[in-house]
Design brief:
Elements: E1 5-10, E2 16-22, E3 28-30, E4 36-38, E5 58-61, E6 67-69, H1 73-76, H2 88-92
Antiparallel strand pairs: 1-2, 2-5, 3-4, 3-6
Length: about 90
């Protein structure tokens, strides 16, 4: 049994997020100017597979009015009535 996890700590004064991603879909950053970026995440193992795993922490600086969009694969892997998957590419737009 395992789970995927994205965990971050936001410093409200600086806008810095210290985060790690354990096998979860990479979040999106929606910038104030409406551009969409995929958040850089290291390759980390899902939680529950190996208790000795060391997870990689990363940092990003968010600016005023930026949005961190965290989602589950239940969104991107959903199918419409024609059997077409929604997809991560479509999520960006």
């Amino acid at each position: 049994i395992f789970i995927t996890v994205f965990c971050g700590i936001l410093n409200l004064e600086t806008g810095e997020i210290n985060y790690t991603n354990a096998g979860h879909n990479a979040p999106l950053i929606i910038r104030k100017n409406k551009t969409v970026e995929v958040l850089k995440t290291g390759i980390n193992t899902v939680v529950g597979v190996d208790e000795k795993v060391k997870y990689i922490n990363e940092k990003i600086l968010m600016k005023n009015e930026d949005i961190l969009y965290v989602y589950t694969d239940g969104v991107t892997e959903a199918f419409n009535k024609n059997g077409k998957m929604f997809s991560e590419e479509k999520l960006k737009y």
